[in-house]
Amino acid sequence: MARSWHTGRVAVPPDYDDDPERFRLGSRITERHLSAPSLYEHLATRLTGRSTIVDIGCGEGALAAALAAATPAALPLLARVSPGPAEALGSAPRRLVGVDASATMLGAHPRPVVQAEAARLPFAADVFDAALAINMLYHLDDPMPALREARRVLAPGGLFVASAIARDDSPELAAVWRREPTPFDAEEAQDLVASVFGTVEVERWDAALITLPDRDAVRDYLIARQVPRPAAVDAAAQITTPLPVTKRGALIFACR
Ligand SMILES: C[S@@+](CC[C@H](N)C(=O)[O-])C[C@H]1O[C@@H](n2cnc3c(N)ncnc32)[C@H](O)[C@@H]1O
């Protein structure tokens, strides 16, 4: 693990080619036990009217799937009251390009995709209506070059969105597991994004959004967070279930 030279925090090591099942397990656990609309469904509504989108660190396409599933009925009321704009927005040809460092992740993502580093995007300047970095900047020792790259490829008025997890996420598991601080946690994400984009808008979440029904689910939740399996089994054995888990984090929105 590389310790970030400027923050002393440790970037989460990417394992998406070596152990893609770890990431998939986490996605399944969230999908099964989440009691609210997913982050991606929410983002799909925020991307209304944005037709060229780059999803940086796109994984296997959770955002692409939510965008494809979004219908005019799911659009905000303002877009629905007037049939003209609603129709136009609902059917606006959206073109999402998935960018990821992992060939394994891109193999499952709808085309078009580009294998690239977030800090070196292979696109001209000023081309996208929206650029997103969802649950990925904590993998970077220094998120600043990636934030500057996202801004570079956005057209004037283009929307940037990043998500970040809070250091005190999942406090109900604190006795057996704690998230290591990373270079892009919800506590600093707002300031980091603002230092590149200027004004930002922040949406925070802090609620028991997931309930893990049994110890197998607790074990899998921990494995998905890179806890080695034997330690996850031991830890899960100490937990009383069902366990409501408080999710804490933030979405940061900024315009170029
Ligand atoms: C936790 S996954 C999130 C995937 C997707 N955004 C989602 O929310 O489902 C993090 C993703 O970032 C990618 N990633 C990690 N470091 C990267 C980098 N330096 N450049 C581009 N992608 C990277 C990983 O390969 C992985 O697909």
CATH architecture: 3-Layer(aba) Sandwich
Strand content: 15-25%
What is the distance, rounded to the nearest whole angstrom, between the alpha carbons of the first and last residues?
Answer: 33 Å
Q: How does the helix and strand content classify structurally? A: alpha/beta
- The whole-number mean of residue pLDDT values reads 90
**CATH 4th-level superfamily:** Vaccinia Virus protein VP39
Task: Report strand order across the widest sheet.
Answer: 3-2-1-4-5-7-6
CATH topology: Rossmann fold
Low-confidence stretches: 73-91
The SSE string, one letter per element, is HHEHHHEHEEHEHEHHE
The CATH class is Alpha Beta
What's the number of extended β-strand segments? 7
Bound small-molecule species: S-adenosylmethionine
Number of domains: 1
Roughly what percent helix? 25-40%
**Over all CA atoms, what is the radius of gyration?**
18 Å
H/I helix tally: 10
Shape: globular
Write up what this structure looks like:
The chain is 35% helix and 23% strand. Strands 3-2-1-4-5-7-6 form a seven-stranded mixed sheet. It has helices at 20-33, 39-46, 62-69, 77-81, 83-91, 103-107, 144-153, 186-197, 215-224, 229-237, and strands at 52-56, 95-100, 113-115, 128-133, 154-165, 200-212, 243-255. α1 (20-33) crosses α9 and α2 packs across α3. α7 (144-153) links the parallel β4 (128-133) and β5 (154-165). The protein has a single domain (20-30, 38-206, 249-255), classed as Rossmann fold (3-Layer(aba) Sandwich), CATH 3.40.50. The longest helix is centred in the N-terminal third of the chain and has 14 residues, at 20-33. The radius of gyration is 18 Å and the shape is globular. It has ten helices and seven strands. It is α/β, with parallel strands linked by helices and 256 residues long. It starts with 19 loop residues before the first helix and ends with a strand. The structure holds S-adenosylmethionine. Residues 87-161 form the Methyltransferase type domain. It holds the Pfam family Methyltransf_11. This is Methyltransferase type 11 domain-containing protein. InterPro entries: Methyltransf_11, SAM-dependent_MTases_sf. It comes from Actinomadura fulvescens.
